[in-house]
Each structure stands twice: as structure tokens, then as C-alpha cells.
Amino acid sequence: MRYLVMLLVLAGVALAGCGATSERTTPSDDLRDGQPEVLAEREWHRRASSGIQTEGEALAPVLVDGQVYVADRRGRVSAYDAESGRLGWRFSIGTGISGGPAIADDMVVVGTRKGRVIALEPETGEQIWDARVSSEVLALPVIGDDIVVVRSADGRVYGFSRETGSRRWVHDVSVPSLSLRGSSNPVQLNGGVAIGFENGVLQALRASDGESAWQVTVSEPRGSADLDRVRDIDATPVLFDGTLYVVGYRGRLMAVSPSDGEVYWDREFSSHAGMDVDDERVYVTDESGRIWAVDRRTGASIWRQNDTEGLNATAPAAHGDYVVFGDSTGRLTVLSAQDGRILARRQVSEDDSISQAPVSDGGGVLVLTDDGYLMRYRLRDRDAE
């Protein structure tokens, strides 16, 4: 399979805005007076990993029950207390990790570039089982009640016994010869998983046997040249309040039923970075790096922030009254969730970019830079000083 490097293919931006004429475009000069409305105060930082080596690795920080977990390409898995930054445990598996970690009470699961899927004991790193898939793992595994679901980069999805690691089923999807590098993470549903594929299709697979329960076409090929026909779903779908939200590259932004795939609403859109959802809005980064907010119940545009165009912005993260994201310049930017205006910009890394979306832990925002530094920022209104 051939992969596209994103910087070479993000030349056009028209698809992201098609049919979106009613949104309010937020002015881009909010910080020209040099006085941010919100203070982003760093509470702690740690050298948590060896960093991101290649585009497409699924090595974002994972937050579970107040602990933040980080894996790296040298094979280390670490757990930190999100509030204090205190290291809880760390171990090494001795081989490079490209997908994970997935976390459960009694298990950590990671995938490797060489197609290994390894389940380990938390804290000690003792191996529980070791399984194989057909190619590198560039997506976060899903740990279910009795099954572990893993997606390989060649379009196959595997179901392994959670207890023994024995293979129960494999689901094979035909993927195009040319695609964006990276994989959409599977999302756990009731009785299965939903996965977006390189062919532009969102599928729900049954956990029991891996068969398709339903599917929806999110992105369709256009034109005759291979480059024109790229139509990946690289962004991870988001399940929120009984609705599954999905967006495709050169495709559509959709809200669908997780039980049967019924489309509640859809609109033309193009994104590979991803999105987040809160009670009122879907926040999504388009293919040019602009941040949008749309009504999560109707898909209608609410606002669009243009000042991020060309900065390779990450997926946004909803954080109370704010929306936060990182970019290729190493900055953390804070927007108003209400109207999209820029409230603060903070230079997080002088030497490297931020390609993984920030994570809100409720009280603060966790950021992992591409050179491996994990940090937590607390946001507060300047007027509250």
C-alpha cells in the first residue's frame, strides 16, 4: 500500500466549506493587543516518551480514571497521575510501539510496526499474551468484555480472546492502493465496534463474529487519477450521547445511529485530523487546518476560525467553555466554544510540533509534544486574577 504525506496533498480547501455559507467567520486579530483573555498556566511537565517518529503513529495520550497513559516507539509504556504528573509506573516491552496503549483494569494492549499485538499486566509489564496480525498497527486497540479488537494497516480487523489472545475472527476490507498514512481508531459500541476505513466506508462490526452489522459511505472517490480518488476516513469517530459522529477526507461530516447506521444529518466536509463533541456542538478541524463548530443536532454551521489555516492544527478538544488544539508551530491555542474567537495562545514547544490532539481531564488540559514532553495546563479567565 502506498501512503500520502499530508503536507503534499492538502492543496485544496474548497470541499471543507461547500454548502457552509451561514457560519459566522471569527475575526483573526483577537490577540493583536497582546492581551489574552485566558491564561494557560503550566502545572507540570515530564519527558514521557521518545516522541513521534513518523506520521500516522497512534501514540496519543490516553486518559482513564484520572491516569494518563503514554506509549512510545521505543517500547515504553508509562502511567502518570493527571493532576500531579507523578509517575505511577513504567515498563518497556523491548520493541517499538506504533498503536496504543489501550487500557483496562487488568490489561494494557499495544500494537507494533511488525504486526504484533501484546497484552500486558499494568504496573509490572508482565506479558499476558502475544498475537500476530498481517501488517503494522496504526490504530488504538479496543478492549471489550471478552474480546480485543485490533485493526491492521492493510484493512484487516481482528478479534482476539481477551483472556488468551487466540484469534476468534478476522474481517477483511479491500482498501485503495493509495491512501493517507494512518488509521481511524475503532470505537466501541454496544456489542461491537465502529471503524472508518480507507475506502471511505464506516462499518459496524459485531464483536461476536466480526461480521458487518451495518455500513455507511462517508467519502466517495472523485475523478480518475489515484490522487483525486483518495477518500480515507482517518479521523476517529466520536460516540456522544447515543449518536456516532464521523467525518471523511474529501467526504462528509455525519451524525448516525450507532445501532443501525441511520443518518440523522450530513454535510459536505473534508477532514483527516478529527473532532470532539460537547452538549451543543461538534468541533472539527478541516483539511486546511481551520476549526469549525456545527450544531450537533442539525449539522448547521455556528462559527469558523480561519486564523489556524496552514498550521496543521490537531483535532480540537472541548474543555468546558473553551476549545483547545495544538499545531505544527508547537503552540497551544484556546478558542471560545461560544463564538470561536481566539482567547489565548501559548508556545508549548520551541523545538517541535504538536500532532496529537490535547486531552481534557476536566480540571486541566494534557498536551503531548512530538518530541515526547507531556504537560498539563490549567486555563482560567484573566479577569479572575
TrEMBL record:
Domain Pyrrolo-quinoline quinone repeat: 74-305
Any single GO BP term: protein insertion into membrane
Transmembrane segments: none
GO CC terms of this entry: cell outer membrane
PROSITE patterns, alphabetized: PROKAR_LIPOPROTEIN
Keywords of the record: Cell outer membrane, Lipoprotein, Membrane, Palmitate, Signal
NCBIfam families, A to Z: assembly_YfgL (TIGR03300)
Family: Belongs to the BamB family.
PANTHER family associated with the record: CELL SURFACE PROTEIN (PTHR34512), OUTER MEMBRANE PROTEIN ASSEMBLY FACTOR BAMB (PTHR34512:SF30)
Complex and partners: Part of the Bam complex.
HAMAP family xref list: OM_assembly_BamB
Protein name as annotated: Outer membrane protein assembly factor BamB
